[in-house]
Design a protein that fits this description.
By secondary structure, the chain is an alpha+beta fold. The protein has helices at residues 10-33, 43-76, 121-126; strands at residues 88-94, 99-105, 115-117, 134-139, 142-153. It is built from three helices and five strands. It comes from Streptomyces termitum.
Length: 155
């Protein structure tokens, strides 16, 4: 990824919003099980209380990460049409002459077969590239190349 804040595609924003909602619901459920200052009874109760407190800390940390990514995505604005970045739509031409359009995202989405994650071999090869540039990347069948035909922002 680039050094600055990365834009979020609509699909990534929706996935993060769903995750944040789920995390907040789970956090509320865990918080409700914590004791209200009463000393737990036996060691098993103390261990359960400690485990729930640790889970609460993990949930709070992930909530902070997701909220931060959503803020970063909002601050980044629309994806660049000059160079490939997260949120870009990229038209590629492969060695056999076929062309394909892919979307660069951070989160895998089974509902979007054209999505390429930024940390995949093709995604890493495309980041920062402009129209006309060639990229090489690893596939299960070996290395292959493609030419970036065009770069567009994702609506």
């Amino acid at each position: 990824m680039t050094a600055g804040p990365e834009p979020l595609s609509d699909a990534a924003r929706a996935a993060l919003d769903r995750e944040l909602s789920d995390l907040r619901t789970e956090r509320a459920a865990v918080a409700a099980t914590l004791g209200g200052g009463d000393e737990p009874g036996d060691r098993a109760d103390q261990a359960d209380e400690l485990q729930r407190a640790t889970e609460l800390e993990k949930l709070d940390a992930r909530i902070g990460e997701v909220e931060g990514r959503l803020r970063e995505g909002a601050a980044a604005g629309a994806p660049s049409t000059e160079a490939v970045g997260v949120g870009s739509t990229v038209r590629l031409r492969f060695g056999d002459g076929t062309e394909s359009t892919v979307h660069i995202g951070e989160l895998a989405d089974a509902g979007d077969p054209a999505l390429v994650t930024a940390d995949s071999p093709l995604g890493r090869a495309l980041l920062g590239r402009a129209a006309g540039e060639s990229v090489a990347y690893a596939t299960p069948l070996g290395r292959t190349t493609a030419v970036v035909v065009s770069v567009g922002g994702r609506s």
